[in-house]
Amino acid sequence: MYWAPDGAFSVLLPAPPRLSSQESKGKNGEPFTQYMTQARDDTTYVLVAYFNYGPTIKFVLDDAVDGMVGAVKGTLLSREPISLGGFRGQQASAEAKTESGIPYMVRARVYDVNRRVYSLQCLSPKATDPAAIAEKCERFLNSFKVKGPQ
Q1: Phi first, then psi: what are they for 13, rounded to 5°?
Q2: In a designed cystine with 92, which of 79, 80, 110, 117 is the match (CB 3.0 to 4.6 A)?
Q3: What is the pLDDT of residues 53-68, one digit of tens each?
Q4: d(CA 105, CA 76)
Q5: What pLDDT was estimated at residue 25?
Q6: Does an H or E element contain 79, and which?
Q7: pTM above 0.85, yes or no
Q8: Strand partners, 102
Q9: What single string gives the DSSP state of each residue in 107-139?
Q10: Residue 147: its pLDDT value, please?
Q11: DSSP per residue over 7-54, as a string?
């Protein structure tokens, strides 16, 4: 089990993580820092990304899922509301292609937890055994826990 350096969340990763951050801007132009925890094994790549948003921002889950699908130039296959400890979220799946044209699947969850947005993604080649990958991705996604109010 991996614990974030600030102790805010834990998640089961398939390998030791690579940590990074990047500066971004919201729809309104307000800057924010996005923090990422990434890991991969022979069939999957997983990512937990998070950022905080201020009181003047209205975060919209649909926009987050649409942005994720747009970022990979993918096609949204499903979307449904979910929750995590009473916090609202969305689960989605999408199909996309690598720059070399290889199709892959994206399974994702996005949660809004006290002005912190968590985005979890599990990516895998579409040609890989779908049942085994679905199980592996579900194990990753279901292992995610947040530690109290942030």
Answers
A1: -110, 150
A2: 79
A3: 888 888 889 999 998 8
A4: 10
A5: 79
A6: strand 75-84
A7: yes
A8: none
A9: EEEEEEETTEEEEEEEEEETTS-HHHHHHHHHH
A10: 87
A11: SSEEE--SS--EEEEEEEE-TTS-EEEEEEEEEE-SS-EEEEEEEE--
d(C-alpha 57, C-alpha 68), whole Å: 19
Query: Mapping DSSP to helix (H, G, I), strand (E, B) and coil, where does residue 78 land?
Result: strand
Place of tokens 């085994």: 132
Of 147, 148, 144, 131, whose CA–CA distance to 12 is shortest?
A: 144
Cα separation, 83 vs 78, whole angstroms? 16
**Cβ-proximal residues to 36 (8 Å cutoff; 6+ apart), any chain:** 19, 20, 21, 22, 47, 48, 49
pLDDT of 28: 74
The three-class DSSP label of residue 68 is helix
Domains of the chain: 2-146 (3.40.1000.10)
Distance CA 25, CA 127 (A): 35
- Note the pLDDT tens digit of each residue in 82-139: 999 999 999 999 999 999 999 999 999 999 999 999 999 999 998 777 888 889 999 9
